[in-house]
Design a protein that fits this description.
This protein is α/β, with parallel strands linked by helices and 504 residues long. The chain has 18 helices and 22 strands. Bound molecules: adenosine-5'-triphosphate and magnesium ion (MG).
Length: 504
């Protein structure tokens, strides 16, 4: 028997199977990837292991012994540590308090020993090579990537033998993705089991030893990652069908009419004199290393930041004073953190989608139910949201399906200008393909899309033009034959200006 053995695990929610008779195993010393479409059952399986869910049927064996896992604290006793897909920190507590919550040291007078806590945190950061983390920063104030690192350290601080990383790379900055892959390898080399979920095939091929594939809650098979691995076969196992070319053919529909424009715009230290135009009918990519002002650029156009300089919409100078103004003027944002900024998690899919269109659906304060249902089903179908019903709560959806609902909600408002923040984060490859097609269709209809992505290939293949940001400025602008990975990366790291711009 292998070191971790799952036998005949089944789990259903309100009569719908999320997992059906799963039997699979993992070995100490391996990084084992779990692959599958959005809603395939990956997170549910991991939650069964981490004690968050109790399976309806099935058994778990650890090192040959039957494990009785009824709660997260049981799981911890068996050395299982899980970094969940959805972050779950307390924003008002500090980073150190979040990491050591429930284990905060006390002074001999019984009060919290902040000095000792700080020491413990710094030790942990040193051990795992995270020098930039501030233990005293409020968790709500740090970047998404830092929040993700904090969650990883929280789990590692308990020294687990089985480490579960559910989509932990999707929120990480690029250099930290490498860090996590190396960390996973180091943990495996120490004899641990690392269970790794990601929708990015390159990471799986780079960092994992074996892949197990789930489809519709069923176990499909396991493959070794080596030179004989047939990725096309793996994708077919995931999707249940072959997938033709991933990126759509692009026809440029951009006009010469600017939808949005910035002239010498500044905002705190994030934007340092931005000049750019987004044209109607255009998908304009925003690239750059992490934290160079890209997020603030999108947020500024949505009225989240009060900027200095000139902002124009449809050629007219405007003051996008707040998101309400933006929405009223048909500007929509797909936000960075779907859970916090994009959805009402405790409400249904239907409500989440229709809330933004409530004016269109109501007459004399009465909501037209039929119209509402039509609207909801139109957009859930368009984005192939996988859920038991449109009344399912957003919190019951898989991570990728939550992302689709955020998109559905925004599409349903029929905006003219879309600000898209990494829309394919956590989305499976089949759905990514659908989203790419959708983005191109939006542009074809003459609407404008500002498209931020951390994936350079995606920018190269989906956008008509890409601007590159560095240090709060636009330092590159590529279109046509010039729009390629080399130019984007070159401008991101400043190759073309090396020497010339060395004012600093
Ligand atoms: N608490 C819940 N209540 C009801 N249904 C649930 C619950 N949790 C998960 N499900 C359903 O179980 C199925 C599997 O979801 P799961 O989160 O495991 O998918 P996943 O493979 O992790 O997908 P993703 O890649 O999008 O994260 C989905 O259809 C989901 O809607
Ligand atoms: Mg999941």
């Amino acid at each position: 028997m292998d070191d971790l053995q799952l036998n005949h695990i089944s789990k259903s929610f309100s009569g719908n199977y999320a997992l059906r008779d799963i039997t699979m195993s993992c070995r100490c010393g391996e990084v084992h990837a779990l692959l599958g479409e959005n809603g395939a059952g990956k997170s549910t399986l991991l939650k069964v292991l981490s004690g968050a869910y109790h399976p309806d049927e099935g058994e778990i064996y650890i090192s040959g012994e039957k494990a009785f896992i009824h709660s997260p604290s049981d799981a911890m006793k068996y050395g299982i540590g899980c970094v969940y897909q959805e972050l779950s920190f307390i924003p008002d507590l500090t980073v150190a308090e979040n990491i050591f919550i429930g284990r905060i040291p006390k002074t001999r007078f019984g009060s919290f020993d902040h000095k000792e806590l700080r020491k413990m945190a710094l030790e942990l950061f040193r051990k795992y090579d995270v020098p930039e983390m501030d233990p005293d920063a409020k968790a709500g104030m740090i970047s998404l990537s830092q929040k993700q690192i904090m969650e990883i350290l929280k789990v590692l601080s308990k020294d687990p033998k089985i480490v579960i990383l559910d989509e932990a790379t999707s929120a990480l900055e690029e250099n930290r993705v490498r860090w996590l892959l190396e960390l996973a390898r180091r943990l495996a080399d120490e004899g641990k089991i690392v269970l790794f979920i990601s929708h990015r095939m390159a990471e799986i091929q780079d960092g994992c030893d074996r892949i197990s594939i789930l489809r519709n809650g069923e176990y499909i098979g396991t493959r070794d990652v080596n030179e004989n691995l047939d990725m096309d076969e793996v994708i077919s196992m995931m999707l249940g069908r072959k997938m033709s070319s991933y990126f759509p053919d692009i026809i440029d529909h951009s006009t010469t009419e600017p939808a949005l424009e910035m002239q010498n715009v500044t905002y705190e230290r994030a934007l340092n004199g931005v000049n750019m135009k987004l044209y109607k009918g255009e998908v304009l990519g925003v690239a750059g290393l992490a934290g160079q002002g890209q997020t603030e650029l999108l947020q500024a156009f949505y009225g989240i930041h009060k900027v200095n300089g000139t902002v124009l919409m449809n050629g007219q100078q405007v003051n996008i004073r707040n998101p309400k103004w933006a929405i009223a003027n048909k500007i929509a944002l797909v936000p960075e953190e779907r859970g916090i900024q994009g959805l009402f998690l405790n409400l249904g899919i239907d409500f989440n989608i229709s809330i933004s269109s409530i004016d269109k659906l109501s007459h004399a304060l009465l909501v037209n139910k039929k119209k509402e249902e039509d609207l909801v089903s139109k957009y859930t179908n368009l984005l192939s949201v996988k859920a038991a019903s449109t009344r399912s709560l957003a919190s019951e959806l898989s991570g990728g399906n939550q992302q689709k609902v955020v998109m559905a909600k925004i599409m349903s408002c029929e905006p003219e200008i879309f600000l898209m923040h990494d829309i394919t984060r956590g989305v499976d490859i089949g759905t990514k393909k659908e989203m790419f097609t959708l983005v191109r269709q939006i542009a074809e209809q003459g609407k404008a899309v500002l498209y931020f992505s951390t994936d350079v290939e995606e920018l190269e293949r989906i956008c008509d033009r890409v601007i590159v940001m560095r240090d709060g400025r636009v330092v590159g602008d590529f279109k046509g034959a010039e729009l390629n990975k080399e130019n984007i990366i070159g401008a991101s790291i400043g190759i073309e200006e090396r020497g010339a711009s060395s004012g600093k």
